[in-house]
Design a protein that fits this description.
By secondary structure, the protein is an all-alpha fold. The longest helix has 21 residues, at 15-35. The model is unreliable at 32-52 (pLDDT under 50). The chain is elongated. The protein has 30 helices and no strands. It has a domain at 451-548. The chain has helices spanning 15-35, 37-45, 55-68, 72-80, 82-85, 92-108, 112-122, 128-140, 144-158, 165-181, 185-192, 198-203, 207-223, 228-240, 247-263, 269-286, 296-310, 313-330, 335-351, 355-368, 372-384, 388-404, 406-411, 413-429, 433-450, 458-472, 476-494, 498-507, 511-525, 529-536.
Length: 548
């Protein structure tokens, strides 16, 4: 019998491990209960919360809010008694926040002095919007020192905040305008330069922000001694903003045109035409917002001067008149701008034959111009277009100006001689011989000084005219003076060398014979026939007719 072997079956169970796990969990639970016993008890037991009665606090708060919404007298009472009225508020931070709201109410009601006195207690709590609001209020009340301090603190807080870029530009503009108002351009330039930071420049990308930033940089350029680097910044900003239609764009164009005309005074006509086209584009851009663009007068002024250089006098006068109209409309007409307009427009009107318009500008220049050469030009034009006594008065003013200013007389020697000659002719026609003699004498002096070479006959002919006008006066002293002048002239001619005498005869053939003849006539009028006969023997003529 064969018996098969069977291994012994293992007799193992899971009772011991399961029991160990159960004991461990029980121990942990008991430990937690021991440690957190109170919390667990309280959780199931519940907790009592003590609620205090806030009726008094609510009444105080309701009263304060009512006074905040009250009139000026209630606000003044609250601010004057704030320590006692706010003593029930235990938190210093809460009390200061309430004072901040009180300050804003004081500002809203025009109680600026009281608000300013309260500011040191709450300024550290002011949000950025609150600082801006206070800065605006300070500027409106011309409290510039406080405004600049508030804006400086505001700029420190928001320069690196992308969300506050519009506020940053507003604060920079406000500060720069105040510095310029206080005659401190260096400080204005410095505060605008804060926009040069790369982080700020990177945020100025929209047309609206670019327009404002470029306008501020143009303000900086006007206040700076070196403009070109700032103008380049303006170009970069406008290019990044896709050249928006804004005052800065037109201002930059005007500045570039002005520099081109100043640095190139002898530009050819084609180049001037290109500049004119640029100015016209600039003008059209400005006319999109004429109420905000106060550079239109300058644009039209430059356009008028450019057209004058091109010889387009009609367009020149039209542009200058528009410059004057816009300047008057904006209330920005200055004496300097008015003079500049009248100088160029008077010339263009004269060139196009608009005599009344040119005379109107010349009259203004005569009264207000400080450049004596310009005044003399205007007086001469007015005289040339006047008659009678008005003309004589204007010519006399011209003469008096040149008598007082030797350099002016030297530059206008021919004009001075023509004035004396014209005045002499006028008084001769009026038979005012004392004045006629005065002006003929003046003419003689001018011609004699201008022609030292007597062989051309001009100086001698002028001396002859002086003698004849003396004789025309028909008085004994004047006849004597005429005879003396004629005799002296006759002797001077006879004293010339043979060569000079030939030159004189070639220049004025009958001069000597006329002098001798008039001398003889003068002698006859004076009853000195002997001297008359002796004189005419030199020219082998008979005695002349006895007339003046």
């Amino acid at each position: 019998m064969i018996r098969r072997y069977r291994p012994r079956r293992k007799n193992t169970g899971h009772r011991i491990p399961l029991a160990a796990i159960g004991l461990t969990i029980t121990a942990l639970i008991l430990g937690v209960v021991y440690i957190k016993g109170d919390d667990i008890v309280n959780h199931f037991k519940g907790q009592t919360h003590l609620v205090y009665d806030n009726k008094e606090a609510n009444e105080n708060l309701e009263l304060l809010l009512a006074e905040l919404s009250g009139d000026k007298s209630k606000l003044l009472d609250l601010v004057n008694n704030r320590k006692s009225r706010l003593a029930w508020i235990k938190s210093d931070d809460t009390r200061r926040r309430f004072l901040w709201f009180l300050l804003t109410r004081l500002v809203d009601n025009g109680l600026w002095t009281e608000a300013k006195a309260l500011l040191p207690e709450v300024e550290s709590l002011a949000p950025t919007e609150g600082l801006e609001r206070l800065a605006v209020a300070a500027r409106e009340r011309q409290d510039y020192d406080l405004q600049l301090r508030l804006d400086s603190r505001l700029l420190d807080q928001i320069t690196d905040d992308p969300a506050r870029t519009p506020m940053l530009l507003r604060s920079v503009r406000r500060s720069a305008e105040t510095y310029l108002l206080m005659k401190n351009p260096d400080a204005a330039v410095k505060v605008i330069a804060r926009l040069d930071q790369p982080g700020v420049m990177a945020r100025i990308s929209t047309p609206e922000l670019a327009a404002e930033a470029a306008a501020l940089q143009m303000m900086r350029a006007e206040a700076s001694t070196v403009k070109e680097p700032v103008l380049q910044i303006v170009r970069n900003i406008l290019e990044k903003g896709k050249w928006p239609l804004c005052p800065a764009t037109s201002s930059l164009m005007i500045e570039e045109v002005s520099n081109a005309l100043r640095d190139n005074p002898n530009l050819a006509a084609p180049s001037l035409r290109e500049i004119e086209a640029k100015l016209l584009r600039c003008r059209d851009s400005m006319l999109e917002y004429p109420d905000r663009e106060h550079r239109l007068p300058r644009c039209y002024m430059m356009l008028g001067e450019l057209r004058y250089r091109l010889g387009e006098y009609e367009g020149c006068s039209q542009a200058l008149s528009l410059a004057e109209a816009f300047a008057d409309g904006y209330g920005e007409m200055t004496p300097e701008l008015k003079l500049q307009i009248c100088r160029t427009r008077s010339r263009s009107d004269e060139a196009r034959g608009a005599v009344p318009d040119a005379m109107a500008d010349c009259r203004y220049l005569v009264e207000h111009e400080t450049d004596q050469e310009e005044v003399l030009r205007c007086l001469s034009y007015l005289a040339a277009n006047s008659q009678g006594a008005d003309k004589i008065e204007l010519l006399t003013r011209c003469w008096d100006m040149m008598e007082k200013d030797e350099s002016l007389a030297r530059k206008n020697a021919d004009f001075k001689a023509s004035i004396a000659n014209e005045l002499a002719a006028y008084y001769r026609t009026e038979e005012d011989y004392p004045n006629a003699i005065k002006w003929v004498s003046a003419t003689t002096d001018i011609i004699t000084a201008a022609h030292p070479d007597v062989t051309d006959g001009k100086a001698y002919r002028a001396r002859l005219e002086l003698a004849l006008i003396n004789r025309k006066a028909d008085t004994r002293p004047c006849d004597t003076q005429a005879a003396r002048l004629l005799k002296k002239l006759m002797v001077d001619i006879e004293a010339l060398s043979e060569e000079d005498r030939e030159k004189l005869d070639a220049a004025d053939k009958d001069l000597y014979r006329t002098v001798v003849r008039e001398y003889a006539r003068t002698c006859l009028l004076r009853g000195e026939s002997y001297y008359a006969k002796q004189a005419v023997k030199k020219i082998k003529e008979g005695l002349p007719e006895k007339r003046r």
